[in-house]
Amino acid sequence: MGRVLAIGLDSGTAAVVERLAAEGTLPNFAAMRPRAARYHLHSGPHHRHGMLWPQFIAGVEGKIGGEWLRMTFDPATYEPYQESAHHEVGGLGPFWERAGVETVLFDVPRATCGRSGVQITSWGGHAPLYPRASNPRGLLDEIDRTFGPHPAFGNDYGAGWHDPSRLDTLTDALEIGARRRGRIARHLQERFPWELFVTVMSETHSLSEFAWHGIDDEHPLAPERGAHAAGLMRRMYRAVDDAIGEMVAAAPADASVLVFSLDAMKSSHGDIPSIVLLPELMHRVQFGSPLVHDPDQAAWRAAGCPPLVARGGRPWRPDLDERLVHRVEPGGLRARVHKIPGYDALRQSRMSTAAIARLRRVHNGALGLPIPREYRGGRDDAERMRESTARMLFVGHYQPYWRRMPAFVLPSFGDGYVRVNLAGRERDGIVVADDYEQVLDDVERLIRACRNPRTGRPVVYDIERAAGDPYEADRYADLIIRWTEPIDAFDHPDVGTVGPFPLHRTGTHADGGFLWMTGEGVTPGDRGDGSVLDLPPTILALLGRRPPQPLSGRALVTPSGAPQPV
């Protein structure tokens, strides 16, 4: 059989690709489209919990907890953590490794440097959760010297929709990084033998989170800022298209080409409900006082509830910190290196001192935040890296009060997560097992009573209760809340109005990935729906390899490349 070149778009959106290809902005996508078998891929609920890449790597469906979720909570210390990526998730290594496929892996999110194959991690990935490393050792340093690092790595949270200048700088860096990635991938394709080559374009994820109001005309920021954001999105996607063109041009004649995304993007609730409004609401109910000052709400309503704009020239977070009733001083260097893998983890890291020292030699990124050089320590050390999300996210300001509350809000990067302070599970738990369901009922009623002052609609889309035994060791949250729309304030009939505060990210993850596939024997055209779990068996079918067990999903093609019957 031939080879497979698999190019992922991290949170790339099929509707955006189709539109920009049709208007001529993406010539390589436009050229590929009529030759490709095209599938719409469903992700199920896992796109909301950052679990899609671990699922892709392992080839099986994950669970919302443990190593799959990446977020953990220590009930003995009340400390929430974000864990490093692990080579084995759910007891399984990568599907290509289990199938014995000769692989080159370049910048795949949540991947590690495994036991075999050529691998580069965290050259430019978005929140990769693993140090910048390579197998063989020294390859990443060589890539940095020859081509340069990705100038947006670790810097893509240093911009925001509220500061056009910083957003422009980020977009410039993403364009450079995308085209640089294309050249590096071509170099790797030509230098190393491979059956399967996998790389992922992180740029679609990094910019969509802060410029989605340029895509969605209904977003509250679209009237004032949408046109500028739309231009940035177009520039970024064009650079991604150029990189894909370079990679495809370098592929051997016998290679099947897969361009895919595991999910899409849509307008975000703005992060504020999960990490500010809900914890603030629960704090006011419990203690009768605010932790954060509200602005002049009467003036805000009189002006028509416009979105608040954080101060320019800096990231979004300092604006919120300045609204605290008891102000905190900036964190010096720790604040400046926020969100850089291998740096914000150091205080809570379980890595060896020697391994940490190797991370301190850095490049500078586009927004001035450091980019670590290649990590030369062992994989076991790298997989023990963890960082406190309470220190990372604004919701951490409520952490000192958690022990005194029946339930509290945990850090998250999307949905709201609520955990009961359960006796026998939490060290200082105050809710007995018989009252567990009642506390969940009370929290649900509190949240469902809230309305969005701008629209009058409920703030909640739905609330899920975690299944299974609440005492299970890898449980993170007991309630998971999905929000309805961009929300910067809550109206509660008893508590009153909480907020407004400036929105953070304007784009978030949505169900709806895609696959465009070309190759010998692959029949072009729209092929309907599939699952993101179908990608690993499809790749193995194109390679003529027997799928290892266990493996979820089904191959979308036969070994000859023909579509599988539904």
Describe the sheet with the most strands.
Answer: 9 strands, mixed
- By CATH reckoning, the class of the largest domain would read Alpha Beta
Query: Which overall shape is indicated by the principal axes computed on the Cα atoms?
Result: globular
Q: What is CATH's topology name of the largest domain?
A: Alkaline Phosphatase, subunit A
Report the strand count.
22
Mean pLDDT: 92
Rg from Cα: 23 Å
CATH architecture of the largest domain: 3-Layer(aba) Sandwich
Strand order within the widest sheet?
7-6-5-8-1-9-21-2-22
Determine the number of helices (DSSP H or I, runs of at least 4 residues). Answer: 18
Give me the CATH superfamily of the largest domain: Alkaline Phosphatase, subunit A
Report the sheet-strand fraction. 15-25%
The helix-and-strand class reads alpha+beta
Describe the overall structure.
The radius of gyration is 23 Å and the shape is globular. With 566 residues, it is of the alpha+beta class. It has helices at residues 14-22, 27-32, 52-58, 66-69, 95-98, 139-147, 164-191, 203-211, 222-250, 272-287, 297-302, 317-321, 333-336, 353-358, 379-383, 389-392, 436-448, 535-543; strands at 3-9, 37-42, 71-74, 79-83, 103-106, 118-121, 133-135, 196-201, 255-261, 264-267, 362-364, 370-372, 386-388, 407-410, 416-420, 460-465, 479-483, 490-492, 496-498, 507-510, 513-518, 525-531. It has two domains: 3-61 and 85-131 and 158-208 and 232-266 and 509-543, Alkaline Phosphatase, subunit A (3-Layer(aba) Sandwich), CATH 3.40.720.10; 272-340 and 394-503, no CATH class. Helix 7 packs antiparallel against helix 8 (203-211), helix 7 packs parallel to helix 9 and helix 8 (203-211) runs antiparallel to helix 9.
